[in-house]
Specification:
The complex is a heterodimer of chains A (331) and B (327). Chain A contains 11 helices and 11 strands. By secondary structure, chain A is α/β, with parallel strands linked by helices. Chain B is built from 11 helices and 12 strands. Classes of the chains: A alpha/beta (331), B alpha/beta (327). Chains A and B meet through helix 7, helix 8, helix 9 and helix 10 of A and helix 8, helix 9, helix 10 and helix 11 of B.
Chain lengths: 331, 327
């Protein structure tokens, strides 16, 4: 395997609230108050190779957006580390740290709340490259025009405000903003979920075009298996803070191994399917405040054994490059 | 096109919104029908008029909107000419509605029991104990375990999927002839959506209810529905049996929609995309509203286009349909 561009090593992210004085006092007096901690991301390891598209799939609340934010550097990890080109960006200094930050950009789900409504498009796109000295004052106009043209926006619209654009166009502005600092790695957090069906296809095509033109690497976060299957080289399935299965896209969709992946694939409505029976999977996603012991999926799993409730399954390579964390695989 | 066993038949429905900026023709000549035990899908993007169609059927369009023409035939009665009192007796009892966001439709300050009993007592005289027993039985039917105890809970104590089940249970309380569901699973996760789709189909088979399911997701509609109507800019541009329509779409817009759904067969290749943007409803082009985005359109598309019918019950509004055999 070629050198990983991004190497995520045992990253966990916990959100919690410290007890206030009264609560600490109450605890000292014997009350069973404890700190509420959400394990949003729980010891995740991943590698993204240069030029690859890694699809990260999971249902709401599984921690995929949090993981995306940790990987892009927006949130610090509670434990573990994220290596970018072999180095930990949080330990770098000066120009190297800045380069590592600029090289990892993010595109957000909601093109309505992720753009400043009081800034013109020229400011939204041009602010970062100007500040970071990627282009001089004289060249800025041309620089903005070129990026807008690249993402399919009419450059003459650059004096407009975000509310004057449709959802699809705003998402293009968000993409242009990310591209303006010449990143090589982009975390796309559900970038098409808020768009209309006919516009989704336009944006997916744009992502593929930009990838081949600029040699970008994507971490593509989505709950939509169809989109992920279409775009990704490698797919990682996430459930309640943990990665349960990783494999090349063809392999994962043709030979899914983990019971959760199987259930997800069975539930996704497809255009070809007619009157198929839904509901292979029972119950709901448990609260991340109080996740089940052992394998997080065992209360809903049709194959659960006593061992699943006691022991966290390790991720095992079941075939070249196909990893699955399930006790059914033995070991 | 009217069928004898139709539960509901809508003819030439027009609902316009008279705003300060101009007239929005949200629904502009929609005809549809649904039979007992049948599931009709209405597909369309945001702003295509699919929700306003549903609201118009129940006379729920608020000013500045108004239903200006059409007939909604429900069991021999024209709902649009009903007075407020008679439509109130039908709403919730014989035609029920389920909305997209159950957090918005359930009252956060009332327990589930109170909300359900209220909707029983709105239509029937019964004791609270009898009503509660019926509520619990209905909740069990939509897959809420331990229903008698859960009745005492408040909406915020339920997850999104469970809240939507409560909303479905409220719709089922009076065993309605027709349920209109407006994007009911859009806010839910795929595994939960799968459970609800499964339960809805069972309920339709079991109770012989008719169901109108509104969604932008063609794959969901294809798996659930018997027939699908595709809407664009306030009109039904194509209607037909679900499998035929998705396999051999005739209207260029339907064809574009089907082509733009990512599927395994074309992995990594460019998706067929519909160029341009959804139309501005304040300023629709003459004739076919899809004309500016359509690869097949010509000058003749600027005139009014009537409904054409194919042999297999397919209806469409297009002068340049994809009628050639094969893909």
């Amino acid at each position: 395997m070629s050198e990983a561009l991004v190497d995520v090593q045992g990253v966990s992210k916990r959100f919690g609230r410290r007890l206030d004085t009264v609560e600490r006092l109450a605890r000292r007096l014997g009350s069973d108050i404890s700190e509420e901690i959400v394990h949003a991301v729980d010891a995740v390891s991943l590698k993204v190779a240069e030029g690859e598209v890694l699809g990260l799939v999971g249902e709401s609340g599984c921690g995929k957006s949090t993981l995306g934010r940790v990987i892009s550097g927006l949130l610090p990890a509670s434990s573990g580390r994220v290596l970018y080109r072999g180095a930990d960006p949080s330990l770098l200094k000066g120009d190297e740290a800045r380069a590592a930050k600029l090289n990892r950009q993010m595109i957000f789900q909601d093109p309505y709340s992720s753009l400043n409504p009081r800034m013109q498009v020229r400011g939204i796109i041009g602010e970062a490259p100007r500040y970071h000295g990627l282009c001089d004052r004289a060249g800025l106009e041309g620089y903005i025009d070129a990026i807008m043209a690249k993402v399919g926006l009419e450059p003459s619209f650059k004096d407009r405000y975000p509310h004057q654009f449709s959802g699809g166009q705003r998402q293009r502005i968000g993409i242009a903003r990310a591209l303006a600092v010449k990143p090589d790695f982009i975390v796309c957090d559900e970038p098409i979920a808020a768009l209309d069906v006919s516009i989704q296809a336009q944006i997916i095509n744009l992502f593929m075009k930009l990838r081949s033109e600029l040699g970008l690497t994507y971490l593509f976060i989505s709950h939509d298996l169809g989109v992920v299957e279409h775009l990704s080289d490698t797919v990682a399935i996430m459930y309640l803070g943990r990665i349960v299965e990783t494999a090349a896209a063809e392999e994962l969709f043709s030979h899914p191994n983990h019971p959760y992946t199987l259930a997800l694939l069975a539930e996704v409505p497809r255009l070809g399917g007619r009157k198929k029976d839904f509901s292979v999977i029972k119950g709901e996603i448990p609260s991340p405040l109080d996740p089940p012991r052992g394998c997080h999926f065992h209360p809903r799993c049709p194959h659960a054994m006593p061992r699943c409730a006691a022991e966290i399954p390790a991720s095992r390579e079941i075939l070249g490059g196909h990893f699955s964390a399930c006790h059914l695989n033995g070991g | 096109m009217m069928q004898d066993q139709s539960v509901l038949a809508v003819e030439g429905l027009r609902s316009h919104f008279f705003t300060r900026a101009g007239v929005v023709k949200a629904v502009d000549g929609v005809s549809l029908h649904v039979a007992r035990g049948e599931i009709l899908g209405i597909a369309g993007e945001s702003g295509s008029g699919k929700s306003v169609t549903a609201f118009s059927i129940l006379k729920l369009v608020d000013p500045p909107g108004r239903v200006i023409a059409g007939r909604v035939d429900f069991g021999g009665q024209d709902l649009l000419s009903c007075d407020e009192e008679s439509i109130r007796r039908i709403r919730g009892k014989r035609i029920a509605m389920i909305f997209q966001d159950p957090m918005m439709t359930l009252n956060p300050l009332m327990s589930i029991a109170d909300q359900m009993v209220e909707s029983i007592k709105a239509h029937e005289r019964t004791t609270r104990a009898a009503a509660l027993a019926r509520c619990a039985a209905t909740l069990e039917k939509v897959g809420i375990p331990d229903a008698a105890r859960r009745l005492l809970a408040y909406p915020h104590q339920f997850s999104g999927g469970m809240r939507q089940r409560v909303a479905i249970a409220i719709a089922l309380l009076h065993k309605p002839d027709l349920i209109i569901a407006d994007e009911p699973t859009t806010a839910l996760d795929v595994t939960i959506q799968g459970q609800i789709l499964h339960e809805m189909r069972q309920l339709c088979d079991e109770l012989g209810m008719a169901l109108i399911w509104i969604s932008h997701d063609l794959a969901v509609l294809g798996n659930l529905c018997d027939r699908i109507n595709v809407m664009y800019a306030g009109r039904v541009v194509e209607a037909g049996r679900a499998e035929d329509l998705l396999e051999r779409p005739v209207h260029p817009y339907t064809r574009g929609l089907v082509g733009s759904v990512p599927g395994n067969s074309r992995r990594g290749q460019e998706l067929t995309q519909i160029p341009g943007m959804p139309p501005n409803m304040l300023d629709l082009p003459d004739g076919c509203a899809f004309r500016p985005r359509c690869p097949r359109s010509g000058d003749e598309c600027a005139m009014e286009i009537g409904v054409r019918v194919l042999g297999d019950g397919r209806e469409y509004r297009c002068l340049h349909p994809h009628l050639e055999s094969g893909k």
